[in-house]
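Hi Y.,

Following your request, here is the sequence exactly as I used it, all 549 residues.
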Amino acid sequence: MPVHPLTLSRRSALALSAGGTALAAMPAWARAAANDHADLATAIDAFVQQAMAAFPDQPALSVAVVRDGQAILTRGYGVRKMGEARRVDDRTLFAIASNSKNVTAAGLAMMVDEGKVKWDEPVRTYLPGFTLSDPVIGERITVRDTLSHRAGFGLGAGDLLFWPNSDRSREEVMARVPFVPIQDGFRAGYHYCNLMFVVAGEVLAAASGQRWEDFVQDRILDRVGMTDTVPMASLADPQKSALPHARTGPPLRYQGPMRPIADSIAAIWNWDSAAAAGGICASAVDWSKWIAVRLAMGALPDGSRLFSEETAKEMWRPNVIVTSSEGPTAALPGRAIASTYAMGFQVQDYRGERLISHGGGSPGGISATMLIPGRNIGFAVFSNAEESYLLRALRSGITDICMARTDFDWIADSVRRDREGIEKSLAAAVEIDAKQAAGAAPSLPLSAYAGTWRDPWYGDITIEARTTGRGRNARTGLYLSFTHNPALQGPLEPYDGEMMRTRFPDSREEDAFITFEIEDGRPVRATVKGVSPDIDFSYDYQDLKLTKV
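Below is the corresponding structure, written out as tokens. Let me know if you'd prefer a different format.
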């Protein structure tokens, strides 16, 4: 995922960001810990507990650390649901979201080894008739491109086809792919794109003769011995899962107190239609086995191989630059000279060494996988809340412990950034409400905006006039519905002139501004954007181009 200013949303879970001012240094014992398995596990365990103490609203974490092919730490911390006593352990399931992407890439690597797929073969070789809104790109896009975020789509393009929980099947999502707009040149730059991983999953299905989830279960999870893990959130037993938590306001999403937001992972995160991009739920014990396979370049403990060393190396070969800079400074000790994306993993320099990583974010959960191949060490952190600065502290702090670096206090720096981010977001919320209070009235009666509004890739959004109350208490207002996302339904209020804003009753979701274009005295077109400055990128409202039907 691209590097953005860190905010209280899942977007920050998908990029390794370093920075801030060095405060108190990491304890000195962390330096020696990197030389011994037991000491390293003890140091990381202590650091995780310190981090959780600094972020007391975090319900639970699960951590897996692997060194030299051995799981030296797998542990759960905290409770599966706030207000309840049941604790998580190293077998508890967490939504790992976009960490699923490197599993999809590995499945395609297996097909490459079997001669059934070629990385640089066009997608339409395996999916005849495949095309995109730019037919030239549709003709040329390859399997490698689908795994590298370089097709030319904008950030999060097409995510509303499955986010938030949608009623569309995978087949229906694929049918809409040719209509999703492309905003950049082909292979011209990096834009995080879940949609193309859905396509990659369908290439895997076509090449293997199995549905993505069946291939992952039969050919990967079963063979690696990942007995807890499920390929889709709908298969995650709530009794074995860490339940999602988030801040849902007031005044805006990502603000206010932490609270449980669902009684199962799938209730808020059902990506079965996009499972290849983010559907897997895993335990620390199981993910430690996966980390061991990735560090062993595809080799399994019994001496057999899941995929070849050649394809393992190819999956880590950079395909597109994510960011570049002048490198680390005293204030930015982990800043990369070059951060790149390969296939299902981000590859960068970190403190002079190669770091392979990926993040994952779902409503109510974030995760990270970090591999340091030069040290044969890898670790993962799973969370059941959206405390993104806590994850930042753990990502970089544990990496530093593994590298015997003690010159930066990631916990204190992340706490400071968290506090500053909250202050900025609360100020923005006040400004948003003030603008509405001072806003001009719409130029037309509210009933004029009612009707069916259609977007070429999403489909229909309906707006209807609704009257509530009786007699003198009767009030007429507008009600908006995204027809394929049940949670995105609620009142539509005047904001400023031809701009209106939603008020979705489901506070777990993000409100939107809708701006209408008037021609000949009637609204004919409309554009959409998010209300909150911290909005998650998967609410890709900005790609909607609505026309009144």
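The radius of gyration is 23 Å.

Thanks again,
Q.
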